[in-house]
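thread: overnight batch results

M.L. [08:02]
morning all. the overnight job finished for the chain we discussed friday. pasting input first so we're all looking at the same thing
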Amino acid sequence: MAPEQARGYVDQLDERSDVFGLGAILCEILTGRPPYVGDKEMTVHEKATNAELNDAISRLNDGGADAELVRLAVRCLSSDQTGRPANAGVLASELSTYLNSVEQRLRLAELAEVEARAREGEERKRRELTVAAQKVLQRTLTRQVSERLEGELGRLEMVGRSLAEHLVISNLAIPNVSRQAKGRRKLVRLRLFGVHAFL
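M.L. [08:03]
and the structure it wrote out:
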């Protein structure tokens, strides 16, 4: 109940008195309690008559509701009629503007979340591609090093065979006499890079 209504000033009642009633409903929605609270009906009426709204305004400010909506509720509950929106149409327009801003903020928050998920997905793909590229590079380098080593080993094997053959030929040139002088023939097996020779 608007203060002017509680005082019985019928000649002062207008559309702004109705706006106070709408503000009282908004206060109860936001805080869970009406603007005037008391044990007895007379106490509540006294608070309305004296426009004791400090408790209601404190509850609105501390209730955790959106600041813009709280400001609108406080304006509706103004003890001075001129501080309230002019009529229910103006209040409805302000509420619509508020709801549109809430929807806009929600859309922006959703877009920000989608963008963050997209960036996270791109970053994950980038990391996966980096790991895959590192694996391919590692395999390529390993294969190239392995091929070079195999080539070097093949070349060394050929050199080793050539050396072994040269040793065998050199040893064959030594007269059999020196070997027989030892009393028996020694069988020496030379294995160098897969070449076997008897000395």
